[in-house]
UniProtKB/TrEMBL annotation:
Catalytic activity: a quaternary ammonium(out) + ATP + H2O = a quaternary ammonium(in) + ADP + phosphate + H(+)
Gene: opuAA
SUPFAM superfamilies according to UniProt: CBS-domain pair, P-loop containing nucleoside triphosphate hydrolases
EC class (word): translocase
CBS domain location: 255-314, 315-374
Subcellular location: Cell inner membrane
Protein's UniProt name: Quaternary amine transport ATP-binding protein
Family membership noted in the UniProt record: Belongs to the ABC transporter superfamily.
Gene3D superfamilies xref list: CBS-domain, P-loop containing nucleotide triphosphate hydrolases
Keyword Cell wall biogenesis/degradation among UniProt keywords: no
Organism of this sequence: Enterococcus alcedinis
One Pfam short name: ABC_tran
Protein backbone atom coordinates (compact mmCIF):
# COMPACT_ATOMS: atom_id res chain seq x y z
CA UNK A 1 0.00 0.00 0.00
CA UNK A 2 2.82 2.43 0.89
CA UNK A 3 6.04 1.72 -0.90
CA UNK A 4 9.43 3.40 -0.64
CA UNK A 5 11.60 2.74 -3.69
CA UNK A 6 15.27 3.72 -3.31
CA UNK A 7 14.29 6.83 -1.42
CA UNK A 8 16.97 9.27 -0.29
CA UNK A 9 16.70 12.71 1.24
CA UNK A 10 19.59 15.10 1.13
CA UNK A 11 18.85 18.45 2.75
CA UNK A 12 20.19 21.67 1.35
CA UNK A 13 23.74 21.96 2.57
CA UNK A 14 24.36 18.32 1.82
CA UNK A 15 23.08 16.63 4.95
CA UNK A 16 22.09 13.06 3.99
CA UNK A 17 19.10 12.44 6.24
CA UNK A 18 17.74 9.32 4.56
CA UNK A 19 19.67 7.03 2.29
CA UNK A 20 18.34 4.50 -0.20
CA UNK A 21 15.43 3.16 1.74
CA UNK A 22 13.21 0.44 0.34
CA UNK A 23 10.14 -0.45 2.37
CA UNK A 24 6.67 -1.67 1.68
CA UNK A 25 3.76 -1.45 4.11
CA UNK A 26 0.45 -3.28 3.82
CA UNK A 27 -2.95 -1.74 4.33
CA UNK A 28 -4.03 -1.94 7.97
CA UNK A 29 -0.52 -2.36 9.29
CA UNK A 30 0.84 -0.56 12.30
CA UNK A 31 4.37 0.43 11.31
CA UNK A 32 6.89 1.92 13.71
CA UNK A 33 10.03 3.76 12.69
CA UNK A 34 12.48 3.55 15.53
CA UNK A 35 16.02 4.75 15.91
CA UNK A 36 18.23 7.20 17.72
CA UNK A 37 17.74 10.92 17.39
CA UNK A 38 18.69 12.22 13.94
CA UNK A 39 18.50 8.80 12.29
CA UNK A 40 15.95 9.99 9.74
CA UNK A 41 12.66 8.76 11.20
CA UNK A 42 10.75 12.00 10.92
CA UNK A 43 12.14 12.72 7.47
CA UNK A 44 11.08 9.27 6.25
CA UNK A 45 7.61 9.71 7.64
CA UNK A 46 7.10 13.22 6.31
CA UNK A 47 7.94 12.11 2.80
CA UNK A 48 4.79 9.95 2.84
CA UNK A 49 2.55 13.01 2.69
CA UNK A 50 5.08 15.21 0.88
CA UNK A 51 5.67 17.58 3.74
CA UNK A 52 9.21 16.72 2.75
CA UNK A 53 10.08 15.83 -0.83
CA UNK A 54 12.52 13.00 -1.55
CA UNK A 55 15.75 13.91 -3.32
CA UNK A 56 15.94 10.54 -5.02
CA UNK A 57 13.66 7.56 -5.54
CA UNK A 58 9.91 7.48 -5.27
CA UNK A 59 7.06 6.68 -2.93
CA UNK A 60 3.96 4.89 -4.13
CA UNK A 61 0.60 4.81 -2.38
CA UNK A 62 -1.78 2.19 -3.74
CA UNK A 63 0.56 1.84 -6.70
CA UNK A 64 0.48 5.57 -7.54
CA UNK A 65 3.61 7.67 -7.54
CA UNK A 66 2.72 10.39 -5.03
CA UNK A 67 4.93 12.84 -6.87
CA UNK A 68 2.30 12.86 -9.58
CA UNK A 69 -0.55 13.66 -7.19
CA UNK A 70 -1.61 17.07 -5.99
CA UNK A 71 0.26 17.60 -2.73
CA UNK A 72 -2.58 19.34 -0.96
CA UNK A 73 -5.08 16.64 -1.84
CA UNK A 74 -2.61 13.96 -0.86
CA UNK A 75 -2.11 15.58 2.52
CA UNK A 76 -5.83 15.70 3.16
CA UNK A 77 -6.05 11.95 2.70
CA UNK A 78 -3.36 11.35 5.24
CA UNK A 79 -3.73 12.22 8.89
CA UNK A 80 -0.79 13.71 10.70
CA UNK A 81 -0.31 13.87 14.44
CA UNK A 82 2.61 15.51 16.17
CA UNK A 83 3.78 15.30 19.71
CA UNK A 84 1.36 17.38 21.71
CA UNK A 85 -2.16 16.15 21.34
CA UNK A 86 -3.46 19.48 22.58
CA UNK A 87 -7.10 20.24 21.95
CA UNK A 88 -8.29 23.66 20.80
CA UNK A 89 -9.47 25.31 24.05
CA UNK A 90 -12.18 27.45 22.48
CA UNK A 91 -13.79 24.65 20.54
CA UNK A 92 -16.16 22.09 21.96
CA UNK A 93 -15.14 18.43 22.05
CA UNK A 94 -17.41 17.86 19.05
CA UNK A 95 -15.67 20.60 17.09
CA UNK A 96 -12.28 19.34 18.15
CA UNK A 97 -13.00 15.78 17.08
CA UNK A 98 -14.34 16.83 13.70
CA UNK A 99 -11.91 19.63 12.99
CA UNK A 100 -10.25 17.91 10.07
CA UNK A 101 -13.60 16.89 8.62
CA UNK A 102 -14.72 20.48 8.80
CA UNK A 103 -11.62 21.59 6.95
CA UNK A 104 -12.43 18.94 4.39
CA UNK A 105 -15.96 20.43 4.15
CA UNK A 106 -17.78 17.34 5.34
CA UNK A 107 -21.40 18.25 6.17
CA UNK A 108 -22.63 18.75 9.74
CA UNK A 109 -24.80 15.62 9.94
CA UNK A 110 -21.89 13.42 8.95
CA UNK A 111 -19.61 15.23 11.40
CA UNK A 112 -22.08 14.70 14.25
CA UNK A 113 -22.22 11.05 13.38
CA UNK A 114 -18.44 10.82 13.50
CA UNK A 115 -18.25 12.69 16.80
CA UNK A 116 -20.71 10.28 18.39
CA UNK A 117 -18.96 7.24 17.03
CA UNK A 118 -15.63 8.46 18.34
CA UNK A 119 -16.80 9.36 21.81
CA UNK A 120 -18.47 5.95 22.04
CA UNK A 121 -15.21 4.34 21.06
CA UNK A 122 -13.37 5.93 23.95
CA UNK A 123 -16.28 5.16 26.27
CA UNK A 124 -17.05 8.70 27.31
CA UNK A 125 -20.62 10.00 27.57
CA UNK A 126 -22.09 11.72 24.49
CA UNK A 127 -23.06 14.77 26.58
CA UNK A 128 -19.38 15.52 26.71
CA UNK A 129 -19.40 16.42 23.03
CA UNK A 130 -20.76 19.88 23.81
CA UNK A 131 -18.36 20.65 26.61
CA UNK A 132 -15.05 22.43 26.36
CA UNK A 133 -11.67 20.76 26.90
CA UNK A 134 -11.11 22.51 30.24
CA UNK A 135 -14.22 20.81 31.60
CA UNK A 136 -12.65 17.39 31.05
CA UNK A 137 -9.94 15.70 33.08
CA UNK A 138 -6.45 15.50 31.61
CA UNK A 139 -6.86 11.82 30.84
CA UNK A 140 -10.20 12.41 29.10
CA UNK A 141 -8.67 15.18 27.00
CA UNK A 142 -5.89 12.90 25.90
CA UNK A 143 -8.35 10.22 24.84
CA UNK A 144 -10.18 12.80 22.78
CA UNK A 145 -6.86 13.82 21.27
CA UNK A 146 -6.29 10.27 20.08
CA UNK A 147 -9.72 9.81 18.54
CA UNK A 148 -9.48 13.20 16.89
CA UNK A 149 -6.51 11.83 14.99
CA UNK A 150 -8.55 8.85 13.88
CA UNK A 151 -11.83 10.63 13.26
CA UNK A 152 -11.35 11.91 9.74
CA UNK A 153 -11.97 9.41 7.03
CA UNK A 154 -8.28 9.01 6.34
CA UNK A 155 -6.91 5.53 5.81
CA UNK A 156 -3.34 6.48 6.59
CA UNK A 157 -2.26 8.25 9.74
CA UNK A 158 1.23 9.48 10.47
CA UNK A 159 2.17 9.95 14.11
CA UNK A 160 5.44 11.51 15.16
CA UNK A 161 6.24 10.61 18.75
CA UNK A 162 2.70 11.46 19.81
CA UNK A 163 3.09 10.14 23.34
CA UNK A 164 6.67 11.24 23.89
CA UNK A 165 5.87 13.85 26.50
CA UNK A 166 3.44 11.80 28.58
CA UNK A 167 4.04 10.06 31.85
CA UNK A 168 4.45 6.27 31.58
CA UNK A 169 1.01 5.31 32.86
CA UNK A 170 -0.88 7.71 30.60
CA UNK A 171 1.32 6.68 27.70
CA UNK A 172 0.57 3.05 28.33
CA UNK A 173 -3.19 3.52 28.32
CA UNK A 174 -3.11 5.74 25.21
CA UNK A 175 -1.01 3.13 23.44
CA UNK A 176 -3.65 0.54 24.22
CA UNK A 177 -6.31 2.90 22.95
CA UNK A 178 -4.60 3.78 19.70
CA UNK A 179 -3.77 0.15 18.95
CA UNK A 180 -7.31 -0.96 19.67
CA UNK A 181 -8.83 1.79 17.54
CA UNK A 182 -6.37 1.21 14.72
CA UNK A 183 -7.36 -2.44 14.56
CA UNK A 184 -11.07 -1.77 14.85
CA UNK A 185 -11.08 1.00 12.26
CA UNK A 186 -8.63 -0.75 9.94
CA UNK A 187 -6.32 2.25 9.67
CA UNK A 188 -2.75 2.12 8.45
CA UNK A 189 -0.56 3.89 10.96
CA UNK A 190 3.03 4.97 10.50
CA UNK A 191 4.35 5.86 13.90
CA UNK A 192 7.71 7.35 14.87
CA UNK A 193 9.16 6.57 18.25
CA UNK A 194 12.50 6.22 19.98
CA UNK A 195 11.02 3.97 22.65
CA UNK A 196 11.55 0.28 21.96
CA UNK A 197 8.85 -0.78 24.43
CA UNK A 198 6.38 1.34 22.53
CA UNK A 199 7.43 -0.08 19.16
CA UNK A 200 7.32 -3.67 20.36
CA UNK A 201 3.88 -3.14 21.83
CA UNK A 202 2.26 -1.33 18.93
CA UNK A 203 3.87 -2.39 15.70
CA UNK A 204 3.04 -5.15 13.29
CA UNK A 205 6.42 -4.38 11.78
CA UNK A 206 9.25 -2.17 12.91
CA UNK A 207 11.71 -0.29 10.70
CA UNK A 208 14.89 0.25 12.64
CA UNK A 209 16.87 3.26 11.42
CA UNK A 210 20.44 4.24 11.94
CA UNK A 211 22.19 7.12 10.19
CA UNK A 212 19.55 7.44 7.52
CA UNK A 213 19.41 3.77 6.66
CA UNK A 214 16.96 1.04 7.52
CA UNK A 215 19.06 -1.57 9.26
CA UNK A 216 16.22 -4.01 9.91
CA UNK A 217 12.56 -4.21 8.96
CA UNK A 218 10.62 -7.06 10.47
CA UNK A 219 8.02 -8.11 13.02
CA UNK A 220 8.75 -7.45 16.71
CA UNK A 221 9.07 -11.17 17.25
CA UNK A 222 11.65 -11.69 14.54
CA UNK A 223 13.62 -8.65 15.59
CA UNK A 224 13.85 -10.00 19.12
CA UNK A 225 14.85 -13.42 17.88
CA UNK A 226 17.29 -12.32 15.22
CA UNK A 227 18.63 -8.81 15.75
CA UNK A 228 20.40 -7.81 12.53
CA UNK A 229 23.49 -6.38 14.21
CA UNK A 230 24.88 -5.04 17.46
CA UNK A 231 23.17 -1.69 16.93
CA UNK A 232 19.79 -3.43 16.95
CA UNK A 233 20.82 -5.53 19.95
CA UNK A 234 21.72 -2.39 21.87
CA UNK A 235 18.43 -0.78 20.94
CA UNK A 236 16.51 -3.81 22.12
CA UNK A 237 18.52 -3.96 25.30
CA UNK A 238 19.98 -6.89 27.12
CA UNK A 239 16.94 -7.49 29.29
CA UNK A 240 14.67 -8.17 26.37
CA UNK A 241 17.26 -10.30 24.60
CA UNK A 242 17.60 -12.45 27.69
CA UNK A 243 13.88 -12.90 27.72
CA UNK A 244 13.84 -13.82 24.08
CA UNK A 245 16.81 -16.11 24.17
CA UNK A 246 15.21 -19.26 25.64
CA UNK A 247 13.00 -19.28 22.57
CA UNK A 248 15.96 -20.10 20.44
CA UNK A 249 17.94 -22.45 22.62
CA UNK A 250 17.33 -26.06 21.75
CA UNK A 251 17.78 -28.94 24.12
CA UNK A 252 20.50 -30.39 21.87
CA UNK A 253 22.63 -27.29 22.32
CA UNK A 254 22.89 -27.57 26.07
CA UNK A 255 22.82 -31.31 26.69
CA UNK A 256 25.83 -33.34 27.78
CA UNK A 257 27.02 -35.94 25.31
CA UNK A 258 27.90 -38.38 28.02
CA UNK A 259 24.78 -40.51 28.52
CA UNK A 260 25.75 -43.82 30.07
CA UNK A 261 23.77 -46.54 28.35
CA UNK A 262 23.56 -50.32 28.33
CA UNK A 263 21.73 -52.63 25.98
CA UNK A 264 18.82 -54.88 26.98
CA UNK A 265 20.56 -58.21 26.47
CA UNK A 266 23.47 -57.44 28.83
CA UNK A 267 23.47 -59.20 32.18
CA UNK A 268 22.45 -57.50 35.38
CA UNK A 269 25.97 -58.21 36.66
CA UNK A 270 27.36 -56.13 33.82
CA UNK A 271 24.95 -53.33 34.59
CA UNK A 272 26.14 -53.29 38.17
CA UNK A 273 29.79 -53.21 37.10
CA UNK A 274 29.13 -50.32 34.76
CA UNK A 275 27.34 -48.37 37.49
CA UNK A 276 30.26 -48.84 39.84
CA UNK A 277 32.80 -47.90 37.23
CA UNK A 278 30.94 -44.75 36.21
CA UNK A 279 29.73 -43.93 39.73
CA UNK A 280 26.10 -43.62 38.71
CA UNK A 281 22.98 -45.20 40.18
CA UNK A 282 20.99 -45.34 36.97
CA UNK A 283 21.66 -46.52 33.45
CA UNK A 284 19.73 -45.75 30.31
CA UNK A 285 18.78 -48.87 28.42
CA UNK A 286 18.74 -49.03 24.64
CA UNK A 287 18.44 -51.69 21.97
CA UNK A 288 21.26 -52.36 19.54
CA UNK A 289 20.25 -49.42 17.38
CA UNK A 290 20.71 -47.16 20.41
CA UNK A 291 16.95 -46.59 20.61
CA UNK A 292 15.80 -45.71 24.12
CA UNK A 293 13.89 -48.53 25.84
CA UNK A 294 13.91 -47.44 29.45
CA UNK A 295 16.26 -47.47 32.41
CA UNK A 296 17.55 -49.62 35.23
CA UNK A 297 18.52 -48.28 38.61
CA UNK A 298 20.33 -49.57 41.62
CA UNK A 299 17.11 -50.08 43.57
CA UNK A 300 15.58 -52.44 41.05
CA UNK A 301 18.83 -54.39 40.91
CA UNK A 302 18.88 -54.68 44.69
CA UNK A 303 15.32 -55.94 44.69
CA UNK A 304 16.27 -58.60 42.17
CA UNK A 305 18.45 -60.43 44.66
CA UNK A 306 19.64 -63.31 42.50
CA UNK A 307 21.39 -60.91 40.18
CA UNK A 308 20.86 -63.35 37.37
CA UNK A 309 19.07 -62.56 34.14
CA UNK A 310 19.46 -59.66 31.77
CA UNK A 311 18.94 -55.95 31.88
CA UNK A 312 15.78 -56.47 29.80
CA UNK A 313 14.23 -58.47 32.66
CA UNK A 314 14.30 -55.62 35.14
CA UNK A 315 13.92 -52.82 32.64
CA UNK A 316 11.66 -49.94 33.67
CA UNK A 317 10.02 -48.69 30.53
CA UNK A 318 8.42 -45.56 31.86
CA UNK A 319 11.08 -43.03 31.17
CA UNK A 320 10.69 -39.33 30.65
CA UNK A 321 12.78 -38.04 27.77
CA UNK A 322 13.08 -34.93 25.63
CA UNK A 323 13.90 -34.48 21.98
CA UNK A 324 17.12 -32.74 21.02
CA UNK A 325 15.34 -30.35 18.67
CA UNK A 326 12.72 -29.24 21.16
CA UNK A 327 13.00 -25.76 22.60
CA UNK A 328 14.65 -25.67 25.96
CA UNK A 329 12.10 -23.15 27.11
CA UNK A 330 9.27 -25.60 26.57
CA UNK A 331 10.92 -28.48 28.38
CA UNK A 332 12.82 -26.79 31.16
CA UNK A 333 9.95 -26.41 33.53
CA UNK A 334 8.67 -29.93 32.96
CA UNK A 335 12.10 -31.33 33.68
CA UNK A 336 12.52 -29.35 36.87
CA UNK A 337 8.98 -30.03 38.00
CA UNK A 338 9.40 -33.75 37.88
CA UNK A 339 12.37 -33.45 40.18
CA UNK A 340 14.39 -35.70 37.90
CA UNK A 341 18.12 -35.94 38.40
CA UNK A 342 18.63 -36.32 34.69
CA UNK A 343 16.65 -36.59 31.49
CA UNK A 344 17.70 -38.53 28.38
CA UNK A 345 17.77 -36.59 25.14
CA UNK A 346 16.78 -38.43 21.96
CA UNK A 347 16.70 -37.71 18.24
CA UNK A 348 13.72 -38.12 15.92
CA UNK A 349 14.22 -41.90 15.85
CA UNK A 350 14.31 -41.96 19.64
CA UNK A 351 18.02 -42.80 19.63
CA UNK A 352 19.83 -41.59 22.72
CA UNK A 353 22.04 -38.64 21.80
CA UNK A 354 22.74 -37.08 25.17
CA UNK A 355 21.54 -36.29 28.63
CA UNK A 356 20.53 -33.28 30.64
CA UNK A 357 21.38 -33.48 34.31
CA UNK A 358 19.77 -31.49 37.02
CA UNK A 359 23.12 -30.01 37.91
CA UNK A 360 23.76 -28.81 34.36
CA UNK A 361 20.21 -27.56 34.23
CA UNK A 362 20.78 -25.24 37.14
CA UNK A 363 23.60 -23.63 35.17
CA UNK A 364 21.35 -23.33 32.17
CA UNK A 365 18.55 -21.78 34.16
CA UNK A 366 21.02 -19.39 35.64
CA UNK A 367 22.49 -18.36 32.31
CA UNK A 368 19.55 -18.35 30.02
CA UNK A 369 16.47 -17.59 31.99
CA UNK A 370 17.53 -15.43 34.83
CA UNK A 371 20.55 -13.68 33.45
CA UNK A 372 23.30 -12.63 35.74
CA UNK A 373 21.49 -10.78 38.46
CA UNK A 374 19.92 -13.58 40.41
CA UNK A 375 21.82 -16.21 42.26
CA UNK A 376 21.51 -19.86 41.43
CA UNK A 377 19.57 -20.47 44.60
CA UNK A 378 17.05 -17.80 43.68
CA UNK A 379 16.60 -19.39 40.29
CA UNK A 380 15.93 -22.84 41.66
CA UNK A 381 13.68 -21.48 44.35
CA UNK A 382 11.49 -19.62 41.93
CA UNK A 383 11.01 -22.78 39.94
CA UNK A 384 10.02 -24.60 43.10
CA UNK A 385 7.54 -21.87 43.88
CA UNK A 386 6.01 -22.24 40.44
CA UNK A 387 5.61 -25.92 41.08
CA UNK A 388 3.65 -25.36 44.24
CA UNK A 389 1.42 -22.79 42.57
CA UNK A 390 0.61 -25.00 39.63
CA UNK A 391 0.31 -28.22 41.59
P1 LIG B 1 14.77 11.78 13.60
O1 LIG B 1 13.33 12.05 13.42
O2 LIG B 1 15.15 10.33 13.47
O3 LIG B 1 15.33 12.35 14.87
P2 LIG B 1 15.16 13.56 11.34
O4 LIG B 1 14.52 12.86 10.20
O5 LIG B 1 14.42 14.67 11.96
O6 LIG B 1 15.61 12.48 12.42
O7 LIG B 1 16.59 14.12 10.86
C1 LIG B 1 17.55 13.35 10.19
C2 LIG B 1 18.80 14.17 9.95
O8 LIG B 1 18.50 15.24 9.03
C3 LIG B 1 19.34 14.86 11.18
O9 LIG B 1 20.75 14.86 11.10
C4 LIG B 1 18.79 16.26 11.09
O10 LIG B 1 19.63 17.16 11.75
C5 LIG B 1 18.78 16.50 9.61
N1 LIG B 1 17.70 17.42 9.23
C6 LIG B 1 16.39 17.30 9.52
N2 LIG B 1 15.67 18.31 8.98
C7 LIG B 1 16.57 19.08 8.33
C8 LIG B 1 16.47 20.30 7.55
N3 LIG B 1 15.30 20.90 7.34
N4 LIG B 1 17.61 20.81 7.05
C9 LIG B 1 18.80 20.23 7.23
N5 LIG B 1 18.97 19.07 7.93
C10 LIG B 1 17.88 18.52 8.49
MG1 LIG C 1 11.98 13.07 14.70
Amino acid sequence: MIEFQNVSKIYRGGKVAVEEINLSFEQGEFICFIGTSGSGKTTSMRMINRMTEPSKGKILIDGQDIQKLNAVELRRKIGYVIQSIGLMPHMTIRENITLVQKLLKVDQAKRDQTAEKMIDLVELPREMLDRYPSELSGGQQQRIGVVRALAADQDIILMDEPFGALDPITRDSLQDLVKDLQERLGKTIVFVTHDMDEALKLANRIAIMSEGRVVQFDTPENILKNPANTFVEDLIGEDRLLQARPDKTMVGEVMLNTAITITTEKSIQEALRLMRAKRVDTLLVTDNQNILKGFVDIESINKNRGLTGSVGDILQTEVFFVKENSLLRNTLQRILKRGLKYVPVVDEQKRVVGIITRASLVDIVYDVVFGEEETITDAVESFNTDEVKEG
